[in-house]
Amino acid sequence: MDEAKLKKILGDINAPAPDENAKKSAVNLAVAEFKTVENQRKNAPQGISLFGRLTSKTTQTRRDPMQQKSKQRLMYGGMATAMAVVLIVGVTAQQTMIKNNEFVAQSMLATTNVDAAATAMESLADVNEAAPQEMEREEALPSAAPAPLPTPMDAPVASLTVTEQAAQVGNYATTARAKIATPGFAGAGADASRMMMAESMPYAPPPGVVVPLPEPINPYYQEEGRDKFQDFKPSPVKLVADEPVSTFSIDVDTASYSLVRRELNNGIIPNPDAVRIEELVNYFDYNYALPETRETPFKPTVTVTNSPWSKDKKLVHIGIKGFDIQTDQKPHSNLVFLVDVSGSMDSPDKLPLVKSSLKMLLDTLQPDDTVALTVYAGSAGTVLEPTKVSDKQTILNAIDNLNAGGSTAGAAGIEEAYRLAEKHFDKEGVNRVIVATDGDFNVGVSSDTDLKTIIEKKRESGIFLSVLGFGLGNLNDSLMQTLAQNGNGTAAYIDTINEARKVLVEEASSTLFPIAKDVKIQVEFNPELVQEYRLIGYETRALNREDFNNDKIDAGDIGAGHTVTAIYEITPAGATPSIDPSRYAEKKEAAQPKSEFAGEIGFLKMRYKLPKENESKLITTPISADANAAPNSDVTWATAVAGFGQILKGDTHIGNFTYDDVIKMANEAKGTDEFGQRAEFINMVRNAKASAPH
Amino acid sequence: MSKNEDRELIKRAQSGDAGAFEALANQYYETMFKMAYKFCGNRPDAEDITQESCIRLARGLHSFKGDSAFTSWLYRLVINTGKDWYKSNNRHPKSDDGLETVQVSAKGEDQLYAKQVIAAVYELPEGERDALLLVMSEGLSHKEAGQILGCKESTISWRIHEARKKLGALFEKEQKYG
Fold first, then answer.
1. Are the beta carbons of A302 and A603 closer than 8 angstroms?
2. Are A101 and A177 in contact (CB under 8 A)?
3. How far apart are CA A413 and CA A444, in angstroms?
4. Is residue A216 part of a domain?
5. Interface of A with B in 68-87 (CB under 8 A)
6. Alpha helix stretches (DSSP H) within chain B
7. What chain A residue is nearest to B36 in terms of C-alpha separation?
8. Of A170, A273, A506, B33, which has the maximum CB count within 10 A?
């Protein structure tokens, strides 16, 4: 829309003259308030700055109207307010207690089986009769309380809303109590109530002094912050009879692992959507078998083990390791760094870390590789035309001169970076754009889909893309994923200099040199041996069955030396299934076991394209039921990590598996742990255990 | 009243002079009312928000440190009050009857068009609407708007860009064929 026109229209909004009466009453109210406030200020002891608190709220983004209201009510001071506070606390205590009771009662009912249901009904009836006595018990309890706690039913109420609430609570209270079946549960309720009273003590104000209610804090889960994650649900259990084939794209990204580690180090349980289990598992390097020849870039290793979290179930590990490139055989690289220098990057864990990371990467390059540097902020621009790495000082100077400021025109930057990469396109070498950003592409093409279109177009030219995410608070993880997944690339999240070293130095060859692209995996399970299966992780990478053979469908890439692990949980035939058999489905005659497939759990198919080819190749291997070899430490380790990811996501499929079990398994499988990454993981699990809600 | 006299008035009110505060409130009532009006587009809401803002002014004047213009500070107060007011009343500033009362200087067909645009502006997400009004209607810079809304300059630029894109999608076509 035309700016001048919009300016004119909006500038022309004619606010009418204010109404004199409204003005008078507003000013009078304000003056009265001013006098009250002044009096309180004079009398208030030092350090209780109610007003400082009030104004500081204005800079917060999240405002809670209830909180504002309770503050307003408190402002008017006096005994009535004090009473109301006591009452509110009382009501909250009751509500919480009731929730507790209901929860206990429900979980009890849930565990009762059908036969016991009748007994439960009887005991419920008993409790109905017992309820009045119990109420007496509870009324007797608050003797420990500093102020008399009015029972909801006969409370001397201060305001209408409170009356209503109290009445409602009263009703709930009766029903909730009726549900309590044993004295033991009643005791638990009473304990909860006592606990609440103890907690409420500091909030009962001495007469005449107005104390603000504490602000609610939630230490376990970070709700604020503007990080964007794509939301997804864990894959469900699938019946082999209904859907024998599972298809997905591989994922070698590790961004999720660093994000999770960062949050846990800060004592925060990460957003479940930020936890992508496959990325946690693939963060670690595993010693899977390498292919015998270079003709095939990788080879699958399949192991079947017992599931540590569900009895009767088994885990199928599929591990892939790509061959590594010797330093002297590394192809020539044509790299374009695209660095986000918008204002949001002006933070020690962003731009300075980007600079050190880039310098580190520079050290791993060959003298005749070329590097270009372009930035994006208010406008996109090239800082350094493609330069040979032998002219290192020029590159270092350009990196050092980067400064943060302005807004982020990500799309223009990407266009520019691709233009530079095309300009010096090396047919024989590796052409790659490396984006370093906090993910906030906020000017120009900014929706995930628009950018996706640009990237998809550029993908055709044979230029690969890597996205390095930095910082937290503004991170657009979902955009990073979109970019990397659609641009034949990888996404990594860099939070420390150590992580930069891992991604850019240790794994430089896998980060930089793709050995296969569009790698898809398809597993068909044998219904005679497997009833159900569940793919752990890879939710965001699921493909349709028909996509497997369609070479137009994009999928993940594997770099030199990359390892990829996928884990299925299967229910073997004969074990107790998670899904009940269908009552109405036609009962199949017990099929004659096809002798040629006896002993095969399933069939693994993998498709990949060589980096410069557009036609896919196929690798197949049957998964043998006796791949039951004693699990080696790599398999155990991957299982522990997958278990951890599932606990963290609150996945319901892993039963009673706890953080402690993860730590135990991980300790057994730690191995040599050359760079301390596995020890760090175990430490992270301990952090998660400490931060988890109990 | 000059700027210096205002400063003087603010200082006296901050030290507890009720008379000075009354004068200050009278002085700025209209400014606040106009701000509120622009942000909600109808008189009844604007009056309620201004009244609440006056009360908050009484409580919060102490925290005005003089490091920004008093009017910028007032903007923030009024906008935040408005947000809270709409939140606690569980409403959105776009009541149909309210929009008809938006007054614009344009006449005839232009007036109709302007009213439609303004109506669309009030339908925008809160952040975009606020940024757009501060910059386009009040003529503030992106930086100033950022300070008032408590976000980065770049965020303001982005919000305005987003808002213009949305408005463009709504109105550009009609213009071409109309």
1. no
2. yes
3. 10
4. no
5. 68-69, 75
6. 3-14, 18-40, 43-60, 70-88, 96-100, 108-123, 126-132, 142-149, 153-177
7. A15
8. B33
Which residues, including other chains, have CB under 8 Å from residue B21's CB and lie 6 or more apart? A30, A31, A34, B13, B58, B61
Domain residues for the domain of B154 are 104-178
Cβ–Cβ of A55/B63 closer than 8 Å?
Answer: yes
Pairs across A and B, CB distance < 8 A: 169
Tell me if chain B has a CB within 8 Å of the CB of A26: yes
- At A228, is the pLDDT very low, low, confident or very high (cuts 50, 70, 90)? low
Identify which of A55, A15, A59 has the alpha carbon closest to the alpha carbon of residue B29.
A15
Tens of pLDDT, residues A106-127: 444 444 444 444 444 444 444 4
- Final residue of a structural domain among A203, A229, A257: A203
Residues A194 and A259 in one domain: no
For residue A37, give the chain B residue with the closest CA.
Answer: B59
What is the average pLDDT across B3-24? 86
Would the ipTM clear 0.85, i.e. be above it?
A: no
Tokens at residue B164, please? Answer: 């213009």
Q: Is B52 helix (H, G, I), strand (E, B) or coil?
A: helix
Lookup result for tokens 């946690």 = A280
Residues written for chain A: 694
Q: Rounded to whole angstroms, how far apart are CA atoms A694 and A211? A: 30
Q: Could you tell me if B126 lies within 8 Å of chain A, comparing CB atoms? A: no
Residue B121's closest CA among B137, B108, B110?
B137
> Is there a contact between A101 and A127 (Cβ–Cβ < 8 Å)?
no
Confirm if A489 and A572 have CB atoms less than 8 A apart: no
Give mean pLDDT, residues A168-178.
41
Chain A residues within an 8 Å CB radius of B105: 12, 14
At residue A474, the pLDDT reads: 57
Distance from CA of A68 to the nearest CA of B (A): 8
For residue B99, being part of any structural domain is answered with no
